[in-house]
Amino acid sequence: MLKSIVGGVALLTVSGVAAAFPVNLDSVSGQWVDAVGGQNVTGEGTNQIRWGGSYGNKSGYGFEANPLLPQTINDASPFVLGEFTHYNYEIPSDSAIDSVNLDVYASFSNGGGAVATGPFTFNFLHNETPNNAEVEHEVCGFLCQIFPWVGPHTEITEDGPVDDIVQILFDEAVLSSEFVLDGYVYSLSLLGFEGNATELYTEENGDTSVKLLASLNVSSVPEPGTIGLLGLGLLGLGVLSRKKAA
What we know:
By secondary structure, the chain is α+β, with helices and mostly antiparallel strands.
C-alpha cells in the first residue's frame, strides 16, 4: 500500500512538471556592464560595447535578441536567447578590456500570467592578441621543388595577425536563477555558446557571431505544502481501505 501511495505522489509530481509547460518566451534584451580594463570604452549599458583607439574602427562585443520571438518552450531543451558578435580590429596596445558582463533580461508568459526576469549574467574574458606576432609558415624551397620528397620547411615571420580569443565563464550563482510563474518555480540555466563551446576565435579585421543558449527547468511543482497534503490524503485513503478489508 505504501508503495502505491508513494507512486501516486510521484506520478502527480511528474504530471505537474509536464503541466508547467508550455511557456512562452516573449522578449529578450541584453546590456554590457562592469567592463574591466580597456581604453576609450563606449557603450556600457547598451547592447554593443567598444574599446580601443580614439578614432577609426574599434574592437567590441554586440548582442542581438532572438529575432524569432515570441517562442514557445515545450520542455527543458536548449533554446536561443540571442546572438553574440565579436568585432576584432587593429587597436593600440594595452587598450583592450580584460573582461565584461552581459546582463540578459527575459519575459515569460503562459495562460496564467506573465513575468519579467533577470538579469541573468554571462561573464566574458577577453584576450586581445598582438596585431603582429610570430606566425609559422610552411615554405617549399628550391630543393623541395626539385625533390618533392624532401618536403617543405618551416619559417617564422613577425608580421602575421593573430586571432583574438573570447572565453565565456559562469559563476555557479547564476546558473539557476529562479522565478515564479503561475505558481510554478522555474530556473533558467545559461548554457553558453551554441555547440557547447566555451571560447571562440576571431580573425584580425573580422567578426564572429554565435548563438547564446539557455534552458528552462521546473525546480518546484506543485508547492511543497500541496504535495504534503496530497500525500496525507492518499495515506488516509489507504488506511480506510485496509479497515474495510479487515
